[in-house]
Amino acid sequence: MHNYRLFVSSGLSFSDSTEALNHIGMKMVSKGVVKNTYPAALLEREASFPTGIALEEHSIAIPHCEAMHALEPAIYLIRPTLPVAFLRSDDDGSVAAELIIALIVTDPREQLQLLKTLFGQLQKSEFIESLLTVPEDAIAQYFNNHILAPVA
């Protein structure tokens, strides 16, 4: 899984999850990692299968959609200025996501492995704390070291 392109943004403001998802869709199209069908597919998937997750001390969202909309594997990490409301994946209200981790995968089996690794690390409070607090220019390296490098 070491071939994922990693994009990082901090300091963005979104009024709601739809605005955040629209941003992700357009940014990934502009970077050439997804097809033009990706933005709509991302919104549709989130509406049917919400991705907000309440962790022990923080909340995140992991938006994604079917591999057929991707051109190459990528991950887009966003640390918004203020938490963004996402519906919970367990259908129990919403969470205020402090971190958005958009996954763009070309191989569904690889997505499963990535999610296993990601969830394993997200159970460690120091991992999420670090993603939320390291300087923006260090986020990609930290994420790569803890998520992508171990399974490469």
Automatic annotation (TrEMBL):
PROSITE patterns assigned to the protein according to its UniProt record, in alphabetical order: PTS_EIIA_TYPE_2
Pfam families attached to this UniProt entry: PTS_EIIA_2
Lineage top rank: taxon: Bacteria
GO MF term set: protein kinase activator activity
Chain ranges of the PTS EIIA type-2 domain: 1-146
Coiled-coil features, chain-numbered ranges: none
Name assigned to this protein: PTS galactitol transporter subunit IIA
